[in-house]
């Protein structure tokens, strides 16, 4: 679990986050949503430790992240996996080498041990046998799965995903969501996902944090979205007339069955 306690982050006179207190739970996908400029990316970077808060605390379980020595912080970061928006794969490296990279950087494993772990991670994301291909030789969806395999290679306790469905078609997006959700629940990972994808919200949103203007304005799960009275949530989730009609039809059908 990760929790924040009254997190404030300011850049000069601009308060980007204004006292965020919340929890992100182990074993379920935790989604951060909100319009552009709401503070999602800044919050994600604070959770990872790339930014320091102006005030407030971030706890990994019961450990205050920003009170740690460099050595203890390194130990925590060894337990963190990161899936970047643009995948951040090295074009000059093969798929296998890309996945192996964190082990090369942070472990003393033998080459045989590393290659065995690479194979395990490729099997985990249903991409067995592509070790020797280069990122340019696989599709965008497959590149995303390589990114997930690399994020999982050190068996993280915490996984952060920045817009994991960016640039993907709807069908592939759903497959990526299902893969992240399965890995999260199966390995009891605290997974935090920064997303604009409403299919993700309604599909895997077991814990949803909605930000607006640097404030936490709503928190709940996907089953509570339809019934929520929060106008901010409804304006964001059901921004288009088409989605509003879908919501109204779903509510009518649900009430008719009760």
From TrEMBL:
Keywords: ATP-binding, Nucleotide-binding, Transport. Coiled coil: none annotated. One of its GO terms (molecular function) is ATP binding. Gene3D superfamilies: P-loop containing nucleotide triphosphate hydrolases. PROSITE patterns: ABC_TRANSPORTER_1, ABC_TRANSPORTER_2. This is ABC transporter ATP-binding protein. It comes from Neolewinella marina. PANTHER family: INTERMEMBRANE PHOSPHOLIPID TRANSPORT SYSTEM ATP-BINDING PROTEIN MLAF (PTHR43023:SF6), PROTEIN TRIGALACTOSYLDIACYLGLYCEROL 3, CHLOROPLASTIC (PTHR43023). Residues 2-238 form the ABC transporter domain. SUPFAM superfamilies: P-loop containing nucleoside triphosphate hydrolases.
């Amino acid at each position: 679990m990760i929790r924040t306690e009254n997190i404030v982050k300011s850049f000069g006179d601009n308060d980007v986050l204004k006292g965020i207190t919340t929890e992100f739970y182990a074993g379920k996908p935790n989604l951060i949503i909100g319009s552009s400029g709401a503070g999602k990316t800044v919050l994600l970077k604070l959770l990872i430790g790339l930014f320091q808060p102006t005030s407030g605390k971030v706890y990994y379980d019961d450990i205050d992240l920003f009170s740690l020595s460099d050595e203890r912080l390194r130990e925590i970061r060894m337990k963190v996996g990161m899936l970047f928006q643009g995948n951040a794969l090295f074009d000059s490296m093969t798929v296998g080498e890309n996945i192996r990279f964190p082990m090369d950087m942070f472990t003393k494993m033998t080459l045989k041990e590393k290659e065995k772990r690479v194979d395990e991670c490729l099997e985990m994301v249903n991409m067995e046998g592509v070790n020797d291909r280069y990122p340019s030789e696989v599709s965008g969806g497959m590149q995303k799965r390589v990114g997930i395999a690399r994020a999982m290679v050190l068996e993280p306790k915490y996984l952060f995903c920045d817009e994991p469905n960016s640039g993907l078609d709807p069908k592939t997006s759903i497959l990526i969501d299902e893969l992240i959700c399965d890995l999260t629940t199966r390995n009891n990972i605290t997974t935090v996902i920064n997303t604009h994808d409403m299919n993700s919200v309604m599909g895997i949103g077991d814990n949803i944090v909605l930000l607006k203007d640097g404030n936490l304005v709503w928190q709940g799960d996907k089953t509570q979205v339809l019934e929520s009275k929060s106008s901010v949530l409804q304006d964001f989730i059901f921004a288009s007339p088409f989605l509003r009609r879908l919501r109204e039809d779903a509510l009518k059908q649900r009430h008719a069955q009760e």
